[in-house]
Amino acid sequence: MTEKLLVRVGQSQQEPVSWLIWSDSDSQIIASGELEHSGLLGELTEKASGRSVALLLPASSVQLKQVALPTKWNRKLERALPFMLEEQVASDIDEVFIALGEPATIEEQHYINIALCDLGWLQSWMSVFGDFDIEPTVIVPDALLLPTPEEGALSAIQLQQQWLFKGAHWHIGAVELDWVNDYLMLSPESEVVHYSPADSLATTKSLSAKEAEYDLPLAICAQGLNALPINLRQGPFAAKKKQPQWWRDWKSGVIAASVALLAFVSVKSAQLFMLQSEADMYKTQAMSVYKQAFPNKVVRPHLLRKQIQGELDALSGGEQGGFLELTNHFVSIYSQVDDFSPETFRYDRKRNELRIRAKAKGFQIFSQVKSILEQRGIEVQQGALNNDGDYVIGEIRIRGAA
């Protein structure tokens, strides 16, 4: 993008907001203005579209420091940096945002250039910009964008009711007009290179006017963005990666298809689970019936079908064929009667009689079982029925031809 929108805010959201659109290709101002307060930032939403946005913070709210390091800058030192600064900041270190600049070496001493500001304050400004759909790509203190001076000199420009200063070694300042002369008296630099008229400066320092470069303060700052010394869009304020256009075009369709596929798989999985549970229940019931019918046999679940078939073949071909016939008649009632559970089976071969001890939910269920078996031509005798709590327990005798 060759055009930039610079937005300079104040300490509070009630202070005026300055803005300027700068063209890099033509090196000129396209438009500029001032908003009365941050609540009017919506007027810049359309101007921000298609342009990179630089959020300029007041230098009075951002502190620059050069932190001396025991060795060359590395990841371990980055993790230890908050602990190194803990005694150098007045507030809780957890409430301070630390932005990393470039490492520096001065006379063989290693340093890391950093910028500090209040974390909650910067979060509130990012929230305001987000409310108006403006996303800064660059966040930087305003004075840091002034031209870099020579050793022993200060770059200076007047912005509203302040003078902004930039020194040669990671030093910036923002001073109210009433205090600017005192500030210059205490500063060690001997020369002030100013990019706006300095008639109000009463100082013994050498004043060097860059009249040919006089311009709007934000226009001077716009040119400094080409050699950005630090960008506070890092850490918790790092810009999110933009999604590719094809994803933005197809995102809703892909999400809808994914939801539909997930729902389909979930339904089928639930059905499969229910069927498997039902199969396990029937298998358990089959094993229970097998144990009751053949108490001396060892049940092998994976061979249960073959075991049952083997026993049935033996019964149908031997003396106990009557047992198989009576059992088949009795099994037929399961599809017609609910809440009826056999507990024991006893077969009398000589009398060809099958005795079933069972429990049911009510007396009428035994009558129903007896009626069904008699309809199949089986002789049925019903024994005594006893009420045992929620169940009725009794015995049924089924007799075939002797």
UniProtKB/TrEMBL annotation:
It is found in: Cell inner membrane. Residues 247-399 form the GspL periplasmic domain. The keyword Calcium does not apply. Transmembrane segments: none annotated. It comes from the Bacteria. The keyword Membrane applies. Keywords: Cell inner membrane, Cell membrane, Membrane, Protein transport, Transmembrane, Transmembrane helix, Transport. It is a single-pass membrane protein. CDD domains: ASKHA_T2SSL_N. Its main location: membrane. Residues 5-240 form the GspL cytoplasmic actin-ATPase-like domain. Pfam families: GspL_C, T2SSL. Belongs to the GSP L family. Inner membrane component of the type II secretion system required for the energy-dependent secretion of extracellular factors such as proteases and toxins from the periplasm. This is Type II secretion system protein L.
